[in-house]
Amino acid sequence: MKNLSPGPALALVVLIPTGAGLLAYAAGNAAARAGSGAAPFSLQIVFAAVLGVLVLAATAVIVWLARQVRAAAAYAEDLAAVRVPELTRRVRAGEPVDPATALPPPVDGPFAELGEALHALACHAVDAVTAETISRDAQQLALRVGRDNQTLLHRQLTMLDEVESRQTDPDELARLFTIDHLAARMRRNVEKHLTLSGSTPARRWRKPVPMLDVLRAAAAEATDYHRVDVAPVSGPVLLGRALIDVTHLLAELIDNALEAAPGQQVRVVCTPIGGEVLITVRDVGPAIDPGALAAANELLRAPATATEQQRGHGLHVASRLAQRRGITVTLQTSPQGSTATVLIPGDLLTVPSPPTEPAAAGAGPARSGHVVGSGPSRPRRGVDVIR
User: Per the database entry, which stretches of residues form a coiled coil (predicted)?
Assistant: First the structure.
């Protein structure tokens, strides 16, 4: 009888003993009359009275329980439809909210424990929305800072272009080229941060770009670009809308290959296959552990959320970029080294346009001037911003 209110409790305390007493009386009366030879005519009446008393008691308890159930349901409905939505609205509006005091306390009764559980659940829901709002605001702030940094780095690279074009001293020019390469890598890191945050870099490219220029631009963005060997290829042309993502994707895979084989060459080969393009990035480093290889391929198939504690964030970036463009990336390994294969779908490719004027050897897309590397002394960077 825990948590029963006085009304039902009193009814049970009075009616149940009364019914039991009537039953005992009826049984004794029946036995006595049977012993004396008299007809037990009152037995049916007594049983009917007892049954009526029990029915009344059960009805009282059922009515009381129904009221308690309705009260618990109304409390749950009030939390779900009114209180929690109102508190979440206030949280998203920036108001400080303490759900433990703002939510109504649970009602007493046989369902008090259920009410307490609903109250705790509602508090957790509001707390979760609060944490999500704080995380979202922090993410938006970080994205704004990242985009501002991207703009500043673009301005810095533009100024470096101007200074390099006026510099004639080979030593000073080499130093400027090194600074240029570091700035380009910083811009790539900023854009990696934007990609991992679920955003897209602001840089855009409109014109189709020969695949050879794309490969060279990706190699130029790698940390140790001197060790990257890009095989010549002619024919395939990448649409401009996919240029930034494909360049970053290949740069991440090239960086992973360079790290896997310190001091060794990494070879990048592009092969047209039907209406698609297959790109391979090969290194001669040690074979990858089968468990790590399976985990890496699973990550490349289905992007996961990267955390600061997770290493190999380059694969997280590559996975996001591949998913964004419908590109298939697979890792393979052997005792002779490892290979990353990148299958570019046909909807990202186009046929090369006929040249309108002779192009200088190693020339890149218009206005970039830094897509194609012309030698180890000149670390060319990827395509620049087109507003």
Answer: none
The reply to whether 372 falls in a domain is no
Question: What tens digit of pLDDT does each residue of 281-313 get?
Answer: 999 999 999 999 998 899 888 876 544 444 446
Q: Is residue 240 located within the same domain as residue 322?
A: yes
Domain-embedded: residue 157: yes
Would you list the DSSP string of 268-302?
EEEEEETTEEEEEEE--SPPPPHHHHHHHHHHHHS
Q: How many domains does the chain have?
A: 2
Smallest Cα–Cα separation from 343: which of 274, 263, 283?
274
Rounded (10°) CA dihedral 234, 240, 245, 249: 0
What domain range includes position 86? 1-203
Res. 31: pLDDT tops 80: no
pTM of structure? 0.57
Given pLDDT bands bounded at 50, 70 and 90, which one contains residue 347?
very high
Confidence of residue 359 (pLDDT cuts 50, 70, 90): very low
